[in-house]
Structures are given as structure tokens and as C-alpha cells.
Specification:
Length: 253
């Protein structure tokens, strides 16, 4: 901002110089004192102008320096917020990825057949079967009586054969399946629930749970099929309906 006092002095000196020039031109007499006074006035004007110019330049320099400092601070603030935005963006991407993983259905691995050996089962003694045999009098009479002189010679008896693979082992998957099917609500895998909810119940989980609970209370296969035909009115040719009925059939096997 220009100093008001200096600017007023500059205008006054310019006005005086103008009057001096007009007086010289009017009189037509150019004297050395008049020229000196005019030169002094002109030099004073130039010095005043230079002073004002230097002051204005100094003010502009200070203003530019202040603006540069403010710009630097703004750049730092911008970089700080930019870094914060990048971090928030990464967190949002990680959160979205976790949500997508939660939405994906968990496909359980196919159950492996686990054989459970009957370790606590006692093996029968050699030479004897598991069940006692009925011994009749004829059998007793037909048995050879060893003499007192000769020790009884017995043929070596082979150890009883261990239980066969089918008799001595159980399928864990069969046991679990039988247990689950006794409660029809537990007969469905996670994939079955997603599939039946989508294809048979229009993504209405409450309706699906209600139907499964009502079918679980029915005790005969015929009543269950009547429930499906009359109340649900499903198309048995549909693949999803067929698979649902297969699970229901297993419950009554």
C-alpha cells in the first residue's frame, strides 16, 4: 500500500513544477534561477518516486514471501491429508475384501470315510467261538477220552480269525448321516441351505426354516409327501425339488 503522505508530497511537487514551467513559458524569459528551481523540483519528484517505488517493491517482496510460506504450509497439510486418504482407502479395500469373503458360501470338503476299529472289543479265546454251542449227550459220548498213560495230544489250534473289515469297522460318515437324518433340520449341508433357499424359497430363509421344522414334526413318509404336494405344490421334475425329496426319503429309510 502506498504511503499517503509521500504520495501527497509527490503530487504537490509535480504541481509546483508544472506552475514553474507554465510561468517560464508565459514570460518567455528563461533564467538560470528558474531553470535551477525547475531542476530541483524535478529531482525531488524523481527521488520521491523512487522512494515510493522501493517501498512498494519491498512490500510486494514481503507479501510474496508470506504467500510462499502459506503455500508451503498448505502443501504440507495437503500431503498429510493425501497420506491419510490413502491409508483410509487401503483400509476400505481390506474391509471390502473381508466382506466379500464372508459373503462367499463355504464349500465343505467331501467327507472322508473314517474307519473306526473296535479296539476295546475282546477277541475270543483260541479254540472257542464267540457264542457258546449246545453240547448234547451224543457229543459228549463221542468225545475221545485220553488214557492215563498217554498224554493227550492236541492239534495246534490256529488263532481265531480277527473280525472282518466289514464287521470290525464302522463308517463314521454313515453314523453321522444317520444321526443327522433323525433330525431333519440337521440333514442339510451349508451348500444345500444356500441352494434350496435360493431356488425353492425365493431367498426367504424364514419360510425355509418353517417348512423344514414342520416336516421334522411329521413322522411318516406318506404324510411328508402329502405336505409337499398339497401345501408347497412343488414341481417334482425340478432338480432342486428332487434333491430335497431325496434328503427327506433318507430320513425314513
Amino acid at each position: 500500500m502506498i504511503n499517503g503522505t509521500q504520495f501527497s508530497n509527490l503530487l504537490s511537487e509535480i504541481s509546483q513544477l508544472k506552475e514553474q514551467v507554465e510561468e517560464i513559458l508565459k514570460n518567455g524569459n528563461i533564467s538560470i534561477p528558474a531553470i535551477n528551481r525547475g531542476m530541483e523540483s524535478a529531482l525531488s519528484i524523481v527521488e520521491t518516486f523512487k522512494s515510493l517505488q522501493a517501498e512498494q517493491i519491498d512490500r510486494l517482496s514481503h507479501s510474496i514471501a508470506d504467500q510462499q510460506i502459506e503455500l508451503t504450509q498448505l502443501n504440507r497439510i495437503y500431503e498429510k491429508y493425501q497420506h491419510s486418504i490413502e491409508e483410509q482407502k487401503k483400509k476400505m479395500e481390506e474391509l471390502l475384501e473381508q466382506m466379500q469373503n464372508l459373503r462367499q458360501p463355504i464349500i465343505p470338503e467331501s467327507p472322508q470315510t473314517i474307519l473306526i476299529k473296535e479296539e476295546n472289543r475282546e477277541e475270543p479265546c483260541a479254540g472257542f467261538s464267540e457264542k457258546p454251542r449246545d453240547i448234547s449227550e451224543e457229543t459228549v459220548q463221542s468225545l475221545p477220552i485220553p488214557s492215563a498213560e498217554e498224554p493227550e495230544e492236541r492239534e495246534p489250534v490256529a488263532p481265531a480269525a480277527s473280525a472282518t473289515h466289514e464287521q470290525g469297522t464302522y463308517l463314521l460318515s454313515d453314523l453321522l448321516e444317520k444321526k443327522n437324518l433323525s433330525d431333519f433340520r440337521k440333514a442339510f449341508s451349508l451348500n444345500d441351505r444356500f441352494r434350496f433357499k435360493r431356488e425353492l424359497f425365493g431367498n426367504n430363509e424364514d419360510a425355509m426354516n418353517t417348512v423344514i421344522s414342520e416336516l421334522n414334526d411329521i413322522r411318516t413318509y406318506e404324510e411328508s409327501m402329502n405336505y409337499i404336494e398339497n401345501k408347497l405344490q412343488w414341481d417334482k421334475e425340478q432338480e432342486a425339488v428332487s434333491d430335497f425329496i431325496k434328503l427327506l426319503e433318507k430320513r425314513f429309510l
